[in-house]
Each structure stands twice: as C-alpha cells, then as structure tokens.
Amino acid sequence: MDVIIKTDWIKLDSFLKWANIVSTGGQAKILIHEGKVRVNGEVETKRSRKIYPGDEVEVEGIKYTVKGGSE
C-alpha cells in the first residue's frame, strides 16, 4: 500500500498516524516499543526515526511504501 507524504521526511510515530495505522500517538508508541514495526525489513524501536520516500514500513504483516508528494 502506498502512502504519500508531503514533506521530505516524517517521524515514524507521525507516519503511523498519517497512514491511519493508529489513531493516537499513544497507540503508535506502544506498537513501536513492542517491536511490532519494521522499517526496511528491520525492527525499529525509536519513535523519532525519520521515514523518507522510498522507505517501506511494515506493521503486523502489512507493508506501506512511502512516496513523496511529487512522485
């Protein structure tokens, strides 16, 4: 599933909200800290990880490809 961001990058917790994967920052924090989020195939436990166009975020088996607004 493609998710378009309108900035050069977005923090992981904000991305999870932007993509409607979670509805609150608290839910994003829990998912990330429990190791349920992968970025480019690697488990990511930092909420502040910068996500760029071209990155792939996976949550509970669903993959989200990050696209830039100009793509």
Describe this structure in words.
By secondary structure, the protein is of the alpha+beta class. The chain has one domain: RNA-binding S4 domain (Structural Genomics Hypothetical 15.5 Kd Protein In mrcA-pckA Intergenic Region, Chain A, Roll), CATH 3.10.290.10. Helix content is 23%, strand content 34%. It is built from two helices and seven strands. Helix 1 crosses helix 2 (25-33).
Short description:
This protein is an alpha+beta fold and 71 residues long. It contains 2 helices and 7 strands, in the order E-E-H-H-E-E-E-E-E. Strand 6 and strand 7 form a beta hairpin.
Features:
RNA-binding S4 domain-containing protein, alpha+beta, 23% helix, 5-stranded mixed β-sheet, S4_RNA-bd
Helicity range of the residues?
10-25%
For the sheet with most strands, the description reads: 5 strands, mixed
Task: Look at the structure and give the mean pLDDT.
Answer: 95
Radius of gyration: 11 Å
Summarize the SSE layout with pairings.
Elements: E1 2-5, E2 10-11, H1 12-18, H2 25-33, E3 37-39, E4 42-43, E5 50-51, E6 56-59, E7 62-68
Parallel strand pairs: 1-7
Antiparallel strand pairs: 2-5, 3-4, 3-6, 6-7
Helix pairs in contact: 1-2
